[in-house]
Write a structure and sequence with these properties.
The protein has 118 residues and is mainly alpha-helical. It contains five helices and four strands; from the N terminus they run ββββααααα. The termini are far apart.
Length: 118
């Protein structure tokens, strides 16, 4: 016995709306399956670009200045709406932790410590 599933077509002002599997709303990537992988990748890419900009433009990398730049420019992107897209998979958490690891590698003494760990 075959059951035919009828797909619902949604329209707005006589225009048929397309079905999407990914949508961005208020800066948060929302997928149809509810996973946060695309949001984590989006945030990771944005944070890494900002870290690269900081690394290229700041010549005198004094620890206090760099930490303030990180807290004011990078961390807000990592924490924005985190309660809505909370990363619960280990691979998503590790992806976001790579941003912090990349930041610590900007300091010579911390870079050597990171290399000794892993």
């Amino acid at each position: 016995m075959w059951v035919e599933v009828k797909q619902t077509k949604y329209t707005m002002k006589r225009n048929t709306l397309q079905e999407t599997s990914l949508e961005k709303d208020l800066g948060v990537m929302i997928t149809d399956d509810g996973k946060s992988l695309s949001q984590c990748q989006y945030v990771y890419n944005k944070a890494i670009r900002i870290l690269g900009m900081i690394n290229r433009t700041i010549i005198y990398k004094e620890r206090g200045i760099m930490v303030r730049l990180y807290k004011s420019l990078v961390r807000p992107h990592l924490e924005y709406c985190v309660s809505a897209w909370s990363p619960h998979y280990v691979k998503d958490k590790e992806l976001l932790e790579r941003v912090q690891n990349r930041f610590t590698c900007m300091f010579k003494e911390l870079r050597e410590r990171n290399m000794a760990k892993g």
